[in-house]
Amino acid sequence: MTTSSNRGMNYGVVGNCRSGALISDTGAVVWLCLPKFDSASIFAKILDEKIGGSFEILPENCLNISQKYDGNTNILVTRFECSDGTFEVYDFMPRYENNSKGFYSPPDLIRYFKPISGKPSFRVVFDPRLEYGTYTTKIDFHDNYVKAQTTKGDYDSNYLYSSMDLRMVVTRQMLTLEKEEFILISYNQKLLQQTVERSYTKLIRTKAYWLTWSGRTTRYRKYNEVIMRSALVLKLLSYQDSGAILAAMTTSLPETVGEVRNWDYRYCWIRDASMVVKVMTRLGHYNLAHQYLKFITDILPEKDERIQIMYGINGEKKLTETTLDHLSGYKNSRPVRVGNAAYKQKQNDIYGILMDVIFQHFDMYTISLAHSEELWTITRNMVWSVARNWKKPDRGIWEIRTGNRHFTFSKVLCWVAIDRAVKIAQKLLQHSEAEKWIPLREEIRNDILKNAWNEEKQAFTQSYGDSDLDASVLLMEFYGFLPGSDPRFKSTVRAIQRELEHNGLMFRYKNKDDFGTPSSAFTICSFWLVRALYMIGEEEEATRKFDQLLSYSNHLGLFSEDLDFETRQLLGNFPQAYSHLAIVDTAILLAEGKLSRDEQVLQSIH
To answer: What keywords appear on the UniProt entry (predicted)?
Structure first.
């Protein structure tokens, strides 16, 4: 039997903007949380082969398995070619408009079986392990469904429906596919009878939804397939109930196999989400931006409230971190974590990143007076916060857990916050405020130019007074702090490339942190280097590197957080919003050339 790829992380992802599932290239559901992204898992084989639980299809006499998406949709098609016949399984989570009353997006996963030739036979492994497999899961048979429920600890349950014989499905008996069939797993007990026809209707309506959504995505001269798949991934990571955007769909997939850099990414980082919103707006998906800014205004009710670096997907502010010690972890990489202690950290860069998005919102949209006043209040509060905090050290973009420093990227983003605030004030005709903030903008700029530059390295370094380099400094041009033509930026790009590039991939940094020296490539940093090279005039090198990087995706064009320097194996949480937003941004740059920011905005509108 052959499968699609040996890149590692050979998973497809399906979802409906409320939850999502990872499905292996052999058609096994290895990760599913219901009813929400951050709920406890039903299937978590990806985190423990023995007790995580899975939902598998095991064909008899299989010769080949292949996998693809059904066009520009988030419907995954796994094709099983066997000696007794061929069949396809369409995996999806329903999502479509419901009579102008919002979206029908239930906490359901549907597996739709379609025979192609012959009479293929297979077994089903339905092995739910509720609540991360902490205790035994009990399975009970009812007239038209199977119920799985916990026996100890927190109560949880789910329901399985099928057009095939339920007892044969659950007891792993051999099934023969002679007509179209379905299996549905739901967090809720269904009120209506579940039939093949009903599942097929949901499949067609879900396909229509995704094709319509894709059809609204801006097209470019090149890289449209790459941009589209990344856009579809980013849409999947948006949570419809609040407007939050997840960093990734998983927890505890390690940055390096066997190490302890394992984090829960099923939350909304202000930085990651704001950057996603900027990219998606350029692609023409304005509703996502509106929903995210509503999420921001909802979680910042008080004028003096500190902005956290991250929140739960429903705006939760306390994300207590615990470990699930009964799980062995991805390829035995312990610990498995739930929650994320980084929510307590102070990171000064979030002000600038959020202000950049708010400025874009004012720049592109006609905004109601009430909404403008809300955003103007947030703008003034963030200026106040930056004025109080920009001289203080923080934990930086990489969330160093021990010790504060004066990180260059954080200082640059403090400058961005004031720069965008000045521009917002000018746009809103609040000229006295703009004039008041301009000196602060210049003070921060001069401070960076003086203290972040290392004469010996001929580069801006990771933090004030040190000689370590950091890939995040490549974003100085992206945020408008320095133009690509500036000799200091050109020198910095080349210095960072010399020190941090290895085998065509990028370290975030090489100096030791809380867990030693990083040993894998952080995917987004390699795309940052591509952009920086392009902007300093090395266009051929940038294009060549970008095309090479794209070849490191998995079999479906998906990326995780990290890449192994030697094997190119995907590592870290998956699929990673940060990686895919960088792909889109870089692809647009290489496709369209060095347009001004205004030209890019106008182009994305038209």
So the answer is: Hydrolase
